[in-house]
Amino acid sequence: MSQTLVIGANGTVGSPLVDLLRQRGVAVRRATSRTPQAADEVHLDLVKQQGLDAAFRGVKQAFLLSPPGHTNQDALLIPVIDAAKRHGVEKIVLMTAMGANLDPSSPLRKTELHLEGVGLAYNIIRPNWFMQNFNSYWLHGIHNERTIALPVGTARGSFIDARDISAVAAALLMRHDLDNRDFDLTGATALNHEEVARILSSVTGLNIKFQDITPKVMRPGLLAAGLPPDYADFLLIILSFFKMGYAERTTDAVQTITGQAPRSFEEYARYYRSAWLD
Length: 278
Ligand SMILES: NC(=O)c1ccc[n+]([C@@H]2O[C@H](COP(=O)([O-])OP(=O)(O)OC[C@H]3O[C@@H](n4cnc5c(N)ncnc54)[C@H](OP(=O)(O)O)[C@@H]3O)[C@@H](O)[C@H]2O)c1
Prior knowledge:
Layout: E1 3-6, H1 14-23, E2 28-32, E3 41-43, H2 52-56, E4 59-64, H3 73-86, E5 91-95, H4 107-117, E6 121-127, H5 139-145, E7 147-150, H6 162-174, E8 181-185, H7 193-204, E9 209-212, H8 215-224, H9 229-243, H10 253-258, H11 265-271, H12 273-277
Parallel strand pairs: 1-2, 1-4, 2-3, 4-5, 5-6, 6-8, 7-9
Bound molecules: NADP nicotinamide-adenine-dinucleotide phosphate (NAP).
NADP nicotinamide-adenine-dinucleotide phosphate binds at residues 8-14, 32-34, 44-47, 65-68, 97, 127, 129-130, 133.
């Protein structure tokens, strides 16, 4: 049976994507950079560029993302696209990030352009900032200080629930009428971080505050959390774009592609409530 390869299969977007594909009867091969533990897993390390040929053997289509923590996403992903082409893969759904196409010299845009020109059917999805950052990257500050401290001022972002990104990716892997198009994915409404803190407070009963900080204040914390310096700087740059209002725009792509409205921030917060209370 031909396989659908999911890269990032154990991650925030990839894990619900695998579930959705399976529910629809799709045979899924899950890529992991660790030692495979199950028969449906295959070893693929994008950083070391190991396992590409084995991963793509018998694969009809693939979902592709770059793991976070790397700023050379083109070096990680372009060889994957070339391996897919070599193995006769029919379609790739590539996830980058909203705004990735604004600078033609950025590594993510170079990857997008390579995919557009390689001769495979494709979709490119560019999600806005994930709601799930509040129960992962920003969780520590909420647990320890009851604070979301970010250099973003009062700018709004149309945060998206990662499960809606997975739903879009699943739909695009299963239909071909939208092939060779790119989509910016957002939630339905844009919120600033004061509003986010108010929703999290009301759902959890905790008194969670937003604190506007400078990039200079944020940087040591990122390094202490183990981020490589170049990725910490990349994150601070994209947070400065957030502050300038670039994350505010909304699109109707989730609704158009999946037939379902994007999940609201309240819905997200209720689902993950225990994360902030643990
Ligand atoms: N967070 C946001 O707000 C946001 C917004 C827009 C776009 N994005 C993009 O989303 C992507 C991250 O997606 P995500 O949050 O779903 O990821 P994630 O939850 O951090 O998961 C990363 C996945 O990559 C795999 N992985 C790690 N190192 C690997 C390697 N060397 N080779 C192959 N696979 C590896 C991990 O699985 P194993 O450990 O099993 O290998 C895991 O499944 C990034 O490209 C980021 O730019 C994020």
